[in-house]
Amino acid sequence: MTSRATIIGTGSCLPRRILSNQELETIVETTDEWITTRTGIKNRRISRSGEETSKLAAGAARQALEMAGLVATDLDQIIVATVTSEMTMPSCACLVQKELGATRAFAYDVNAACSGFVYGLDLAEKYIRAEPDLKILVIGAETMSTRLNWQDRNTCVLFGDGAGACIMTGNNSGRGMLASQLYSDGRLFDLLKINCAVSMNPDLSLADHDGSYIKMAGRDVFKYAVRSMEKAASMVLDKTNLTISDIKLIIPHQANIRILKSLADHLGTPLEKVYINLDKYGNTSAASVPIALDEANREGCLQENDLLLLCCFGGGFTWGAMIFRW
Ligand code: UT7
Fold it and tell me: What is the 189 CA–ligand 1 centroid distance (Å)?
């Protein structure tokens, strides 16, 4: 039987500080009622010193290693999906490698915004298909709080910090990744973006630069998110000759409860099949799918051979879906 890329360990790490909707009411002109009904979010986590992106990433990785029964020196490769590393260079993945002491691994970052973790899994799968014994650590880690304009109620109430991780290796039992489909459309870059920090080259400064904050055309993003995730999910179902009723659990990017309800409607599946934890953490960008995956895994939502559908959507635009036999 062909070897497939299988997830053998998951982990997550959240900052200790909880920021509630009620507390946000004292920071910007908003209400718990607005945030809850429009987004489903009640709380989010905010990092403090010692909880930088690489530190959260390493915390999640340690849990995943423990579950997989591996030590850091067993790792061959480290992929970190992030848009909020504490450094532009070196990569967050190299900081994680140092933190873990994963001396055998090579390490690099992936930037596909909120879709980054799913892109990372896709990359890892390609390596494992070529070399099934590889042990690859894939992490989604973000400190979105460092890129929020805390005066902009359109965005600052939506995001949170955290990290999730998994370890993949080859397995020839028939379990593992069955199909994956990724997409991007750079023509829509302007609808969801974070400008880079001020340029030291005045000729290359952005004309519209008013801070390296996240900016989003919420309504447009909403529409594309539902349509794109639905199309990507349908594509991987077609590729595997499965239907939505075969799927045990759907773990989508956690941005907004209304997006998830609409996605469930479009896919023709009950909302109970969709894993939801955005009420606790808000939108943690690339960390949202792996944090949810780790929670679902530890809660026992997935039994051996269950079919799992992941779908993602983010800035770029980037989106995609994949199916695992757990
Ligand atoms: O992870 C990447 C993907 N990102 C997403 O998927 C986000 C997608 N978009 C969304 O989730 C939603 O569009 C939002 C939650 C961002 C916004 O919800 P909406 O129902 O689309 O609201 P809106 O932007 O149309 O704004 C409705 C009203 C506006 O007031 P007016 O113009 O109707 O008077 C806003 O100014 O709500 C106002 N508003 C707020 N009011 C209280 C916007 N933000 C807030 C707020 N508190 N925090």
Answer: 19
Q: Which CATH class is domain 177-325?
A: alpha beta
User: How far is the C-alpha of 80 from the C-alpha of 142, rounded, in Å?
Assistant: 10
Nearest CA to ligand 1 atom 2: 314
Domain locations in the chain? 4-173, 177-325
302: Cβ below 6 Å to ligand 1? no
Class at the top of the CATH hierarchy for domain 4-173: alpha beta
Distance CA 111, CA 269 (A): 31
Indicate if ligand 1 lies below 6 Å from the C-beta of 30.
yes
* Domain 177-325 in the same topology as domain 4-173: yes
Query: 180-239, pLDDT tens digit by residue?
Result: 999 999 999 999 999 887 788 888 877 666 678 999 999 999 999 999 999 999 999 999
Q: What is the pTM of this model?
A: 0.97
HSE of 97 in the Cβ direction (CA atoms, 13 Å)?
Answer: 20
